[in-house]
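Input structure tokens:
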């Protein structure tokens, strides 16, 4: 199947830290916790509005005229110097030696690892399939508690040091944000409701795959955490999300308890967060974890390939539901691997989280 043209493509503003987490944090009595969260919420709201306005006039980059698809990444890193003008001051280009700034070097490496997985395992050159240059900006704003993809580039804050640390620390966070670009250039899933939760879940899936790929881990060896190492020592938690056990990533006096459901029995109906896109993503996340660990070996080889085939196959509607996506994964498994363990494992994984496939 050939990918459909993205005639209606509209880039969106996607953040790694959900609004409900920042909302909770902004209500803390301690101004050291509340003030950075409020600033982050305000900055995100302004950037989200800007993205909505500019998206009306946005068009995908024209196809490159060269017949040769790039087989190496073209990364450019910028330093915002705690300002909000993007992209900032250029500090590292493709092929340059590492800088003295660890955030720059981590972002550079994370973008490269994502490019490498897509090309080596799936034959895709960058997120658009045509070698799109990868742009990242670090040190965004003051004590900015987030990282985001704005339709054109990745942006990383330093965190407030109290709740969140530097957002380039976790390679899966870098890959997660870049994977929003992969979705933008393929299925272009609408960022609301179940399609929005799928959008977030796909980014978590590829974020975890890049992490395991870069570490040489099998599905059984992976921790299946998103943002492990991102939470400051004072926080009672291990990560932002757990694909293995949604709802268990943190349980903290300030942040509250991780609200992600692990099955449709606990699906959250809400108007916040674009219909709970960061919350209900726990359901397809767990389905992928169950599939990957049931198949064993390297998660990117079979489970990841099935998800990639659905994302790029051209049949996934922009407003797809969990059921729509699940049915396509069954079809993709059978198309690529036949009526074997893979298709049976896909059916079982979705059944366990309560998403019908028939």
């Amino acid at each position: 199947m050939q990918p459909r043209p993205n005639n209606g493509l509209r880039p969106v503003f996607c953040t790694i830290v959900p609004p409900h987490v920042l909302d909770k944090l902004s209500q803390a009595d301690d101004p050291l916790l509340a003030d950075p969260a409020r600033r982050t919420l305000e900055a995100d709201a302004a950037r989200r509005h800007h993205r909505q306005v500019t998206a009306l006039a946005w068009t995908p980059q024209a196809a490159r005229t060269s017949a040769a698809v790039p087989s190496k990444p073209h990364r450019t890193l910028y330093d915002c110097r705690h300002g909000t003008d993007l992209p900032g001051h250029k500090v590292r280009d493709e092929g340059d030696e590492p800088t003295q700034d660890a955030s720059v070097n981590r972002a550079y490496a994370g973008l490269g690892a994502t490019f490498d997985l897509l090309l080596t395992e799936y034959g895709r050159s960058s997120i658009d399939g045509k070698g799109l240059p990868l742009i990242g900006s670090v040190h965004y704003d003051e004590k900015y508690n987030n990282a985001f993809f704005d339709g054109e580039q990745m942006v990383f804050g330093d965190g407030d040091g109290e709740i969140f640390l530097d957002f380039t620390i976790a390679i899966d966070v870098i890959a997660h944000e870049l994977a929003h670009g992969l979705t933008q250039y393929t299925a272009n899933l609408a960022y609301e409701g179940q399609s929005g939760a799928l959008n977030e879940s796909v980014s978590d899936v590829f974020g975890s795959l890049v992490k395991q790929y870069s570490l040489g881990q099998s599905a059984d060896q992976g921790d299946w955490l998103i943002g492990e190492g991102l939470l400051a020592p004072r926080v009672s938690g291990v990560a932002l999300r757990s694909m293995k056990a949604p709802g268990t990533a943190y349980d903290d006096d300030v942040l509250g308890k991780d609200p992600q459901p692990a099955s449709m029995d606990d699906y959250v109906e809400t108007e916040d967060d674009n219909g709970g896109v960061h919350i209900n993503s726990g359901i397809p996340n767990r389905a992928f974890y169950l599939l990957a660990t049931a198949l064993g070996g390297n998660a990117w080889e079979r489970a990841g390939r099935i998800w990639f085939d659905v994302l790029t196959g051209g049949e996934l509607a922009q407003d797809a539901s969990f059921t729509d996506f699940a049915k396509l994964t069954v079809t993709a498994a059978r198309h690529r691997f036949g009526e074997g363990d893979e298709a049976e494992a896909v059916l079982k994984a979705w059944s366990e989280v309560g998403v019908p496939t028939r």
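The beta strands are 14-15, 75-79, 89-93, 134-138, 147-149, 154-156, 225-226, 241-242, 251-252, 256-257. The chain has ten helices and ten strands.
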